[in-house]
Each structure stands twice: as C-alpha cells, then as structure tokens.
C-alpha cells in the first residue's frame, strides 16, 4: 500500500539519523553537538514536513519523507540522549520512562484526536502545514534559548 511505502521510506531516513546520532554521541564533545543537532533537526523537520504536505507527486513525496524521518529521529533520540547526560545513574531509568511516556506515547493520545479533528475541519494539507509551523516555532524558541543554558560536558 502507499501508506506502507511512505512509512518504509521514512524509516530509511530514521535509520540514517540513528546511525549519525550513534556516531556523534560516541565522541567526547557529544553534548554540545547533540544539543545543536536537535535544534537544527527540529527546523528541518518543520520545513520538510510542510513541503511534504504540498506535494501531490508520489516521487516527490517519497523523496521528501526521507528527511522527515531523519529529522524526527534526531529530535526524539537526540533529546533523549541529551537528557540522559544530565541525570544521575540511579534516576536514568525513571527519567527515560517519563521522557518516552510523555514525549512520544503521550503525544499520540493528544495529537491523534486533535489532528483528526483538524483534518476533518480544515483538510490534511493545511493541518500538516499548521503542524510544521508549530514545529518551526518550537525549534526557533529552542535554538534561541539554548545558548542561555549552562551546558557543561559531563565528566
């Protein structure tokens, strides 16, 4: 099916993002690099997601969904890796559970009905552009405020 093909191609981008994050986090200066990557990936996710919403060509849809999967993985897994660097070892499992419960699974519970209603109300293209705009705003705020944080490389 077309949906299955889009998901599979998106997962190819996610795999590339996972491999890149594995490489980056193995380096000594990974905390600053991951922090920067999360902000940039949030912006690229918003851009490619909005572009994806505007295309009606299967070829362009398949091309644009790769960076969507890549960016989404960098944001989710990168944020998780970033948070783990600042948590005590004894709390890491609890914090990881809370992170995934609220940032990933919690968004399905809130986002699914909300986006379903928006799609029925304003249409799928406008809904995806709205979602991309929200991601762009959140990414911009993150990039602008991340310099205010005192980020020290854990020893």
Describe the fold and architecture:
About 85% of the residues lie in helices and about 0% in strands. Helix 2 packs antiparallel against helix 5 and helix 4 runs antiparallel to helix 5. It contains 5 helices and no strands. It is mostly helical and about 160 residues long. The mean pLDDT is about 85.
In short:
With 155 residues, the protein is mainly alpha-helical. The protein has helices spanning 2-25, 30-54, 58-84, 92-122, 124-145.
Overall form: globular
Low-confidence stretches: none
Kindly report the average pLDDT value: 87
* Total number of strands: 0
| Major sheet attributes | none
Report the structural category: mainly alpha
Distance between the termini: 49 Å
Strand proportion: under 5%
Summarize the helix and strand pattern as letters: HHHHH
Gyration radius, rounded: 17 Å
Percent helix among the residues?
over 70%
Number of discrete helical segments = 5
Task: Give the arrangement of secondary structure elements.
Blueprint: H1 2-25, H2 30-54, H3 58-84, H4 92-122, H5 124-145
Helix pairs in contact: 1-3, 2-3, 2-5, 3-4, 4-5
Question: Descriptors for this entry?
Answer:
155 residues, globular, 5 helices, mainly alpha
């Amino acid at each position: 099916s077309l949906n299955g093909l889009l998901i599979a191609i998106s997962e190819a981008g996610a795999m590339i993002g996972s491999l890149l994050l594995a490489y980056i986090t193995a380096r000594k200066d990974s905390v600053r690099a991951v922090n920067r990557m999360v902000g940039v990936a949030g912006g690229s996710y918003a851009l490619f997601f909005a572009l994806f919403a505007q295309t009606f060509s299967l070829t362009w849809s398949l091309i644009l969904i790769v960076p969507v999967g890549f960016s989404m993985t960098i944001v989710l897994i990168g944020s998780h890796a970033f948070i783990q660097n600042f948590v005590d070892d004894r709390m890491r499992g609890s914090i990881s559970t809370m992170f995934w419960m609220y940032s990933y699974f919690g968004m399905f519970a809130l986002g699914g009905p909300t986006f379903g209603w928006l799609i029925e109300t304003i249409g799928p293209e406008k809904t995806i552009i709205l979602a991309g705009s929200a991601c762009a705003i959140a990414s911009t705020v993150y990039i602008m405020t991340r310099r205010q944080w005192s980020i020290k490389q854990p020893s």
